[in-house]
Design brief:
423 residues; Porin; alpha+beta
Length: 423
């Protein structure tokens, strides 16, 4: 929330202006009067995905593809204010409390390209099926001998191209208000609340899908038009085939009908598709805190209750095939409860060391698709910081943060993935 966090990381026992967020109970141990802070951070992050899916080989020959993602938040502003008078302190914070800014995937996502890659995978599976000796036991020779010629426009498709792109934006904006009171000379308490507004958008497209033209090496044609022509050709031959198809066993007849319906399905499935979705939701949660100060020691504690948040879709286009993006769908998007503890000690008038601990109760928060059940454990952060005032005009600091996530393979997805980190 504050630029000071980037300097020393362990801020949970702070009594500086950033205590309005990290340790609001500590504000009563500051001088009387007003204090304000306006600061901003810039976030630039790589969020690349490396996915392995055998059908990707039909586009470039490699089963493993690299999807480059860039997350950017050029401006993450925060306004903090505090007023201290006697045993009372009042504080306010306005800023971005959650979300990762904007993430752009110039080649789309594996889940979207996988839908296109499945087309040549299906056509090549047909090639193997036609060569299967077991087919002779199911389908009479009169039908079996015609299938390779009839299906050649399908089985000859073994390459594809596409243009895919996706941008996602996620922000949780908030207003936090609270009051702190000095209970004794050494101990204070805080009571406050935060109202949060979730704003998410997803926009992108899958289009310009092409497949190789059978018998014309290196030539690609628009997939929707190609498969529509193949479907027309099959439909024109169906009247002559119907007597033969009618003689097939019921199971074989159903299978052949499914195969003959593939061109129409492919023609529809390869049309240009767009996704344009906005999600919004509102929630509020209480915040409590304690602070102890004596003999150079500062000990802070803060507990944020779970923010029950449900976002509702306003959808203009949803060509993704994903039900979660349909118009009007409501999705749980809670902010988990959080426990923050911090201790700092003034070793010298100019030197302060601090440690901190954050615990996010994610398994008790509601997530889209019930993903909280897929977590092994909640997230914990271990924080260490050191600040040295070398001169009146110069401060040096260092910090370390160890973040331990409970994510599993089943929890990760193209649209939301996370991992443990050291920073």
């Amino acid at each position: 929330m504050h630029a000071r966090y980037l300097r020393s990381l362990a801020r949970n026992a702070s009594t500086a202006i950033d205590a309005t967020y990290y340790n609001p109970a500590g504000l009563v141990f500051t001088p009387d009067g007003w204090r304000f802070s306006l600061n901003s951070q810039t976030v630039l992050q790589q969020r690349d995905i490396e996915a392995t899916f055998a059908p990707f080989a039909y586009n470039g020959g490699q089963q493993t593809k690299h999807f480059e993602g860039k997350a950017t938040a050029p401006i993450l502003p925060t306004l903090m204010g505090a007023y201290k008078k006697g045993n009372w302190a009042f504080s306010a914070v306005v800023g971005v409390f959650g979300g990762g800014g904007k993430a752009s995937f110039g080649q789309g996502l594996p889940v979207f390209e996988g839908q296109v890659a499945a087309i040549p995978a299906t056509t090549q599976a047909l090639t193997g099926l036609l060569a299967n000796p077991a087919l002779a036991q199911l389908i009479p020779a009169a039908v079996r001998q015609q299938l390779p010629t009839i299906l050649a426009p399908l089985t000859g498709v073994n390459q594809y191209r596409l243009d895919s792109q996706l941008e996602g934006l996620q922000y949780t904006l908030g207003l936090q208000l609270g009051a702190s009171y000095k209970l004794t000379d050494y101990l204070s308490a805080h009571l406050g609340a935060r109202i949060s507004y979730a704003y998410n958008t997803y926009s992108g497209h899958i289009g310009s899908i092409q497949v190789n033209k059978p018998g014309a090496a290196g030539e690609y044609v628009p997939a929707p038009a190609y498969f529509a022509l193949v479907d027309q050709g099959l439909q024109s031959r169906l009247p002559a085939l119907q007597p033969l198809l009618g003689s097939l066993p019921a199971a074989a007849q159903a299978s052949v009908q499914t195969v003959l319906g593939l061109p129409k399905r492919f023609a529809e499935g390869t049309k240009d598709k767009q996704i344009e979705v906005k999600q919004t939701g509102l929630g509020i949660a209480p915040i409590i805190g304690l602070h102890f100060q004596k003999d150079g020691w500062d000990i802070g504690a803060r507990y944020e209750f779970r923010t029950a948040l449900t976002v509702r879709n306003k959808t203009k286009h949803n060509g993704s095939g994903m039900a979660q993006f349909e118009d009007g769908v409501e999705t749980p998007n809670d902010l988990p409860a959080a426990l923050a503890l911090g201790v700092s000690y003034r070793i010298l008038p100019s030197l302060t060391a601090a440690v901190g601990f954050n615990h996010f109760f994610e398994k008790q928060a509601r997530m889209a698709g019930g993903k909280e059940a897929l977590l092994k454990h909640n997230t914990s952060e271990y924080l260490f910081g050191l600040e040295w005032r070398a001169k009146d005009w110069l401060e040096l600091s260092a910090g370390l943060q160890l973040t331990r996530k409970g994510v599993t393979d089943d929890y990760q997805s193209n649209l939301h993935f996370d991992m443990s980190s050291n920073s």
